Predict the 3D structure of the following.
Amino acid sequence: MDKLIVLLPATPLLSALLITLLADRSRRRIARLSVGFSVLTFLLAAASLAFYLAEGRPQWASFAPGWGSLYLDPLTSVMSLMVAGISLVVHVYSVRYMAEEAGYTRFYILLDLMAAAILLMVAAGDLVTLLVAWHLIGVLLYFLLGHNAMRPAAQRYAFWTFLTYRLGDLPLVLAAVLLYETYGTAVLPTLFERIAAAPDAHTVAGIPMLTVVALLVALAAFARSAQFPLHTWLPYTMEGPTPVSALMHAGIVNAGGFIINRFAPMFVHAGGVLHLVFAVGLVTAILGSILMLTQNDIKKSLGYSTMGQMGFMFVECGVGAFSLAIYHLIAHGLFKGTLFLGAGSVIGNARKHDGVPHDDVYTFVVERKPLAPRLPWVLAAVITVVVPLLVLGASRWLMGGDSVGEQGGIILLFFGWVTGAQLLFATYRLRVDSPWRLMAMIILSLIIVVAGYTLIEHGFDLFLYPDRELSERIYAAASLPLATFEVLVMILAATIVVGWIATYYAAANGRAHRGSDASPLRLAFYSLISREFYVADVYAWLTQATLGLSRRLNVWSRWV
Amino acid sequence: MTLLLITSLFLPLFPLSIVLNGALTTLRHPAARCAVLLLWPQLGIGLLSIAQHAIPSYFVPWALLTSGLYALRLLTVRDMGRWAGLLATSGLALTWALAAAGADSMDLRLFAFWFSLPHALMALLVLPLTRRFGAAYAGLQGGLIGHLPRLSGVLTVTALAAVATPPFPGFFGLLRVLHVLDWAGAVTVLFIWLTWGWAATKLLQGFVFGAERMESDTDIGRASTLAFAGMLGVFIAVGLYSTGGGL
């Protein structure tokens, strides 16, 4: 078992070393070697998960006292399998995709090193190993994104990514130093035991030490997972090769959710930080989704979509649903990786057929087809508001969720409600021959998706957090005072119901398009979005100011 | 006190740090620069041992200020020889933080070594660049990765070692420094570390990446590449062994 944990990051590392030594061999051989090692890594990850399931207890392996250790627990085994799987797909995809590119061998070396670094991060058993792996991912990503050395844009955005990641490294280093100073160990299992034994033993400037450390870890996670306002690097990294985009959006960017889960025993004592994580996640999800809708480039749109998804992942962490965040991370990784790898085909198809549906007037006048009927708007509005709520509530009740105790569950229910309602609204707007049949099919799909999602999430929670008490304490830490929460729930519920009814009324009476006149306020909002809230401009100004200061200092000191 | 001030010539504190950087600018041969970068701080630690004097509290902020100043200046330096000198000054100034915390002489010697060997290697790399292009100036050549992959690789890894990228020992040395500093000091050091990384990417973008502007030249030999790689590999191994992970 110990050997398996060590072999996980060691296998891609060995592959990188062998490719370096065989750099003069043919491209095909190098690719075969790298893909072969990737297959082996994937099998090792699967075996480590199987061994964990068989033994049922975490394993810890160390090479030196206090550092250089690896830890195999449920989180490590699940994440390793996911990382190894995505890495394998990206390796196979790159064999032909990168065949015409310069630096083919270098690309595979970097890809293998990246796989090794991510696997080391997810399996790190102590703070120092975690820091080393965490930092190396940022460095390797810089070289992967800037793989095309001739493109200035690729270099520029690789640099942005590097600097943001480096900025995110700082709080994590500080958190590690504080934890070591306070609890006298860098070994994660021992550290968590000591935290549980003495959570309130220390303060920093009058603030509980664990709150400060949790905040620092959260800041590191924000930078790594492109949370507002540290998101500007993400949509622009499309200048890198497509396989790197896939690897980054499917794996690397999820590190924020992973690190919060890794430090879950600490977040139990930092409820205030979880509320901050929720707020930042919510803002990021909203802004990411808005920015996604305004893009006209598929890869950039996918980039902002990832930003929005990362926001949702943090919302889940913020409400205490840590295991759900990991499930989300894996699900998002798989579908976003697929989307990136298929983006080229989509662009190719779009050149032949734009796929934009014709509007009602076009259908009636040009195609000479009568308009298909719609459901009565009042009935559709009632279905939209009631059905998702019933489906979600029933699935939650079946799983035995404590609706009063787990406020996080209720908040997530709201997200599910809005999303389900959006789906039904989209169905209502479609002009089809049999609207009732379509609505019934959509509701059936919704039930299957929600039931499946709830079942998997429940199973995931039991697997990742076998200590039920810890899971409940995380939910409790993320909870708001009951009175505040109830008021918020009522306001939110009323807003959603009224909002949907108003939307249906407007759609049924043809007012949805009438309000689209370019008023000054709308134009100002659009310009704000098109400039991406000026965040990147502020960073560019700060960068130029710093470089200007540096230049002046050098001139004054005559360069010595 | 006089001895401490003399020591701050060798473990450079601004404005006395001008002496080290002036000397590095005056010395033309990269091997001589390399020797100075390796020996200069060790002389300072020797003097510190002789002084046996408690280090006044204001030396730590002075050292942080020096380190920050040189890190900031590093961002717009394009001559690689000067770059190595300024970065060494920024890193070596941090030795004072460890010294003020009572670290023993061996620890200080090792710390100074972590922050002088990669810079000495950087100074050595000026030689192959100057031979090929007449100067080692970022942005002058560019795109070396296309036709000089070995030199680019060695330059990249050495630059990463110089800016204390893990698993190079500079990173673990930096963790030791963070361990002995207060909040404000630790945050300052982390921002200095961030600035080093920024400066390294600027330097690499000027040499390794970008469009090729010159005719292809012969790359450095396999033996030289292996020598550099071996030295950096041993550097990592020794660092991991002797720092024990830094914390």
Q: What stands out?
A: Chain A touches chain B through 49 residues (CB under 8 Å).
